[in-house]
Design a protein that fits this description.
The chain crosses the membrane at residues 6-23, 35-51. It comes from Clostridium oceanicum. InterPro entries: DUF4491. It holds the Pfam family DUF4491. By secondary structure, the protein is mainly α. The chain has one domain (4-83). Helix content is 72%, strand content 0%. Helix 1 (4-30) runs parallel beside helix 3 and helix 2 (34-50) packs antiparallel against helix 3 (55-83). It is elongated, with a radius of gyration of 16 Å. The protein starts with a helix and ends in an 18-residue tail after the last helix.
């Protein structure tokens, strides 16, 4: 039996689970400025993934890369959740109170 697919699935599951609090914290402390960081990490890890011979490391970097890319969208959604009152606002930041519908 080949357990490599299940192992890669476990890695994806762990990375996706780790990115939920990362998005929340990055929106809280950096706001939409964190999008730039996610873009940089995503592109860098994708390029390294293309040039890695080990399939497990390459797959992990690819999943990490696309978690970063998905986090770009989630930071914008998180800001909406904060404005709706579902998450705490950072008292050191000024929020644009308009909700785009």
């Amino acid at each position: 039996m080949n357990y490599l697919g299940a192992f890669h699935g476990l890695i994806a599951f762990i990375l996706i689970g780790l990115f939920h609090p990362i998005v929340i914290k990055s929106e809280y402390y950096l706001g939409k400025k964190s999008i730039f960081i996610f873009v940089l990490f995503g592109i860098f890890s994708l390029l390294v993934s293309f040039n890695t011979k080990n399939i497990t490391i390459s797959t992990s970097l690819g999943v990490f890369s696309f978690c970063c890319f998905w986090s770009i969208k989630e930071v914008c959604e998180q800001e909406k959740r904060v404005l709706e009152g579902r998450f705490p606002q950072n008292p050191n930041r000024i929020y644009n109170k308009k909700l785009k519908q």
